[in-house]
């Protein structure tokens, strides 16, 4: 019955919910890609030209292509999970049918054996009175045969359930493999554009006074704008190991452990903020806006200024250039200021077909 219990414990509703989440994430990825196209098409109409512009628009095209691939993968996972849910429901039905059939067969065999044994005992008692040999088969022989038959029934049932359990495990593992599969050509494989002084102006990142503008993080260099780099100084000389997807997932674990109600369903929104604020560069510094001129430029993946980072970081996550630490602070700021990532102005705007704007 252990195998039956394992099959029965499969929660089909959770699989359905996961499929819905992946489908919604795919829709969000598509919305973000469309929004990115809309917001850059205007610039591409001759408003901004030259080598830096060409490089930027090439990067945007690559990000849009990556977004399409991410959307396709998420939708593929959603379809796979829906199919998995249907197949597992059918497997559960088959297990239940076989269990009912086996129970019926065992009960019928028991009833038959009890009647036969009772009759055999009556015949044996009558033969003993007449001093005659007991008839065959005896009650003991009938009991032994009944036990053998019942064992055959239950062994067949166990074999059937084991085969169905193997089928379920195989399908579940295949779905897990698809879900964990690295997306070929996804966001983390888009090369970042080189830093250039011809980059478009921005007022970006998270401001200490709570005002918000588009981030558009600059390159990893230091000190433009004349105001210094703030208490945390300039970025390291080389990028950290890993990719944006890994950094987001690690940050989510730390946030959940700290009681922040963020889930994997928020990954697309975090991705979108990072994409628009820093382009995925953990060493990005916005070194041309008013914050930079005041000596506290926006830094890192989610473009935090030092004071906002320090106010929202978690213990042990103290490095503004560490991508995980920066995501943690940016997400906590988003929850503190807006109540959640869905309410971040840029995310809300894109959800309704508008262009992203900084938080």
TrEMBL record:
Residues 213-232 have a biased composition (Gly residues). Residues 186-244 are annotated as: Disordered. Transmembrane segments: none annotated. Residues 233-242 have a biased composition (Pro residues). The keyword Coiled coil applies. It comes from the Bacteria. Keywords: Coiled coil. Residues 74-130 form a coiled coil. Residues 270-343 form the Transglycosylase SLT domain. CDD domains: LT_TF-like. InterPro entries: ESAT-6-like_sf, Lysozyme-like_dom_sf, T7SS_ESAT-6-like, Transglycosylase_SLT_dom_1. SUPFAM superfamilies: EsxAB dimer-like, Lysozyme-like. It holds the Pfam family WXG100. This is Transglycosylase SLT domain-containing protein. It comes from Amycolatopsis mongoliensis.
